Structure formats: structure tokens, C-alpha cells
């Protein structure tokens, strides 16, 4: 008689690599089959083959994102061209096999020193670890260098961009074995430690363009194709004000009335229609019309109500809070007009919120996270 037992990666690691963090391991990777009368007669069968490293080092970039877009709370987001985070990953013999080390964190944002180099406490590290687990990497260790191009707590998907760039970099090193859904799930593990289990930042950062999250169990991601012949510019105005995601989520109502529910559902539908048709007038009106989330968060960001009014009066098709804030995002179809709109929004933050702010005008990023460079393995 044969008895089969499942041995987890953690059990094996305890014997082979005692220093490996237990949280690194979850998936079973071999079975033990033994005769009932002699449990010491073991045979091992791996259930997946570890991929080889095709690169000795890679560099990947992931773009910023605008999540929610008004009434699309937690299920709709898009990627923004030109700004984001860059992660370099290399096979490092000084790192224990199967582990991740963060060697360097740099960037222009003033709070970059607050980021931990402990991979279990860093968004890039957590996502990289999850990607390694999915790939079954046990024979080599990796080191990470993170370059922050996004300010922390800005409402532009800063943590998601770090996670996306790291997960994509790890996947690229080992031959792109993971699917888009796998990469998003790896990043969701990271996002859950920062702002909650929602993919409206990480999915568009990985996939590019507009993405709708239809379901989480199982994960279902829907690409919304904005017409390539249409121009779309985001006016992103970020004040010098911290709006921690967890605090901004805590301000949201636990219950809503049926009229608000019906109204927001109709606006979410109009958002999707506006994206697919390239109708910026419809898109702008819909993203400006959230009556559930935006009013609660706007009250916590000094000057936000006046900033939104200033953007629309300056010619924007619509304006709302990017993610959980404090960045305000307006949409237009012309870059020069976008600069003028941004100037008015900056002035409104100063006048009505007593906050200094900076403005950027960026197009839609249609590519998502991507490999920038790689050094092939010898």
C-alpha cells in the first residue's frame, strides 16, 4: 500500500535554507510517496520544473496610474505615460538561493528615505517574492534596485508602479513564464499591505491603457481600448499634502442609498462607453459625477472643490481625484490647453487650500510595464 503526502516549499526550505523567511513559501513543490509499513522509503517527484535565468540582469519600468476615475471606485483605472518607477533586478550569488535582497532605493521624491530595504516590507520586494514563488525559483537569489519616479502617497499608484516593475523584471529574467493575471496577483499581494486588495492601480500599470476589474475570484481583467486616433491628455496637479490611502479609505461611507447607487452605476457605464467610443465629453462628465466617494475625500483635501471648479471653468472635459488623492486629475484633448488648465488648478490649490502644487500634462500609456534592457546570461 502506498501513501502520498504533500510537502510544502517551506518544509523543504527549513532543512535546506534555515534562514529563508517562512512567509516566502506557500506552494507545494513535490510529493512524498512511501510504503505504509516503511515510512522511510521515500521517493520525490517535483510537480514543476524551475526555469533557468535567461538574463543575468534586467531593468523594467512601470507607469503611474489614475484609479477610480470618479465612479469607477476600485474597479477602473488607466496608465499614464511618461512617469513611473524603474526596477533593476540581477541574479546575485551573494543572496541566498530563493531569496530577494533590496540593494538600493533612490529617487527625486523627498520621502524616498522612508522606504524600507526589507523585502518583506517593501512593495517591490513583496511583488518580486510572489513572482519568484509562482515561478518556483529555488536555486538562485536576486537583488533589486528601485528608482522611484513617483512621489509617495500621491494618488498616482506609486506603490503599484514599484510592484509592477519588480514583478515584470523577475518574470523577464526567467523567460516570461507568468501570465498577465499572474503578475497582477503577485502585485495584489503587495497592494494588500499598503492600501487594500484592489487592482485598479496594478492592473493598468502592468497592462497599460484602461482596465476594468470585473472579478477577483477568479481574477477577470477587461481591457478597454481607447481609440488610437483620439487624443487624450491628463492634467495631473499634485499639492504638497499627504493623503495616506488607508486614511482616505476610512473616510468612505459603509452604506449608501439606492439613489446614489443607481446614479453612480449609470456614470460608471458612461465612463466605459466614453472610453470605448473615444468620447471625451462623455468621459469627462462621467468622471466628474461621482456622488459617493469623491465628496467624502474632497472634504479632506484643502481646496479640492475649488480646484475641480477651476479645471472645468478653464475648459477641462472633467475633473476628479486621482486614486485616493491628493492629486487632482482633469482630462482634455489638447496638450497646450492642458497646461493652461493646470495653471488654473495650481492657483486654486494655493488660493483656496493654501497649498503649493505642481502640474504635469501626460498622455495615456498604452503599453504598461515593460522591459527596458537586459544582459543575457552567459
Write a structural description.
With 378 residues, the chain is an alpha+beta fold. Helices cover 33% and strands 29% of the residues. The chain contains eleven helices and 14 strands. The strands form three sheets. Strands 4, 5, 6, 7, 8, 9 and 14 form a seven-stranded mixed sheet that branches. The protein has a four-stranded antiparallel sheet with strand order 11-12-10-13, sandwiched between helices. The protein has a three-stranded antiparallel sheet with strand order 1-2-3. The model is unreliable at 1-47 (pLDDT under 50).
Give a brief rundown of this model.
This protein has 378 residues and is α+β, with helices and mostly antiparallel strands. It is 33% helix and 29% strand.
Features:
378 residues; globular; 33% helix; disordered N terminus; alpha+beta; 11 helices; 4-stranded antiparallel β-sheet
The value of Rg in angstroms is 23 Å
Number of strands: 14
Helix content: 25-40%
- Category by helix and strand content: alpha+beta
Enumerate the spans where pLDDT stays under 50 for 5 or more consecutive residues.
1-47
Mean pLDDT: 87
Largest sheet: 7 strands, mixed
Portion in beta strands:
25-35%
Tally the helices: what do you get? 11
- SSE arrangement, N to C: EHEEEEEHEHHHEEEHHHHHEEHEE
Shape: globular
Q: Termini separation (Å)?
A: 47 Å
Keywords: Amino-acid biosynthesis, ATP-binding, Kinase, Nucleotide-binding, Threonine biosynthesis, Transferase
Domain GHMP kinase C-terminal: 273-348
GO biological process, one term: threonine biosynthetic process
Domain GHMP kinase N-terminal: 128-209
Amino acid at each position: 500500500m502506498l501513501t502520498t503526502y504533500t510537502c510544502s516549499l517551506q518544509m523543504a526550505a527549513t532543512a535546506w535554507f534555515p534562514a529563508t523567511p517562512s512567509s516566502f513559501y506557500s506552494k507545494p513543490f513535490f510529493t512524498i510517496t512511501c510504503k505504509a509499513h516503511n515510512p522511510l522509503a521515500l521517493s520525490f517527484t517535483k510537480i514543476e520544473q524551475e526555469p533557468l535565468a535567461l538574463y543575468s540582469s534586467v531593468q523594467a519600468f512601470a507607469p503611474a496610474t489614475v484609479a477610480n476615475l470618479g465612479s469607477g471606485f476600485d474597479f477602473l483605472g488607466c496608465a499614464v505615460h511618461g512617469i513611473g518607477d524603474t526596477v533593476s533586478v540581477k541574479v546575485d550569488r551573494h543572496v541566498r538561493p530563493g531569496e530577494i535582497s533590496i540593494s538600493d532605493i533612490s529617487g527625486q521624491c523627498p520621502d524616498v528615505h522612508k522606504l524600507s530595504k526589507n523585502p518583506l516590507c517593501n512593495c517591490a520586494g513583496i511583488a518580486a517574492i510572489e513572482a519568484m514563488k509562482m515561478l518556483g525559483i529555488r536555486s538562485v537569489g536576486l537583488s533589486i534596485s528601485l528608482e522611484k519616479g513617483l512621489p509617495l502617497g500621491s494618488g498616482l499608484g506609486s506603490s503599484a508602479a514599484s510592484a509592477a516593475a519588480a514583478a515584470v523584471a523577475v518574470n523577464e529574467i526567467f523567460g516570461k513564464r507568468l501570465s498577465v493575471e499572474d503578475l497582477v496577483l503577485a502585485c495584489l499581494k503587495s497592494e494588500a499591505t499598503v492600501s487594500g486588495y484592489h487592482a485598479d492601480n496594478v492592473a493598468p500599470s502592468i497592462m497599460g491603457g484602461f482596465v476594468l476589474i470585473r472579478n477577483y475570484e477568479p481574477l477577470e481583467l477587461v481591457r478597454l481600448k481607447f481609440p488610437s486616433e483620439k487624443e487624450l491628455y491628463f492634467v495631473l496637479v499634485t499639492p504638497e499634502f499627504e493623503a495616506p490611502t488607508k486614511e482616505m479609505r476610512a473616510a468612505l461611507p459603509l452604506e449608501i442609498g439606492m439613489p446614489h447607487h443607481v446614479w453612480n452605476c449609470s456614470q460608471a457605464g458612461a465612463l466605459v462607453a466614453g472610453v470605448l467610443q473615444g468620447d471625451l465629453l462623455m468621459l469627462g462628465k462621467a468622471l466628474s459625477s461621482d456622488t459617493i466617494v469623491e465628496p467624502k475625500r474632497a472634504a479632506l483635501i484643502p481646496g479640492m472643490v475649488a480646484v475641480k471648479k477651476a479645471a472645468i471653468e478653464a475648459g477641462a472635459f472633467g475633473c476628479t481625484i486621482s486614486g485616493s488623492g491628493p492629486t487632482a486629475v482633469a482630462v482634455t484633448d489638447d496638450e497646450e490647453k492642458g497646461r493652461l488648465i493646470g495653471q488654473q488648478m495650481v492657483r486654486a490649490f494655493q488660493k483656496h487650500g493654501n497649498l503649493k502644487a505642481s502640474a504635469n500634462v501626460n498622455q495615456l500609456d498604452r503599453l504598461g510595464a515593460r522591459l527596458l534592457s537586459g544582459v543575457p546570461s552567459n
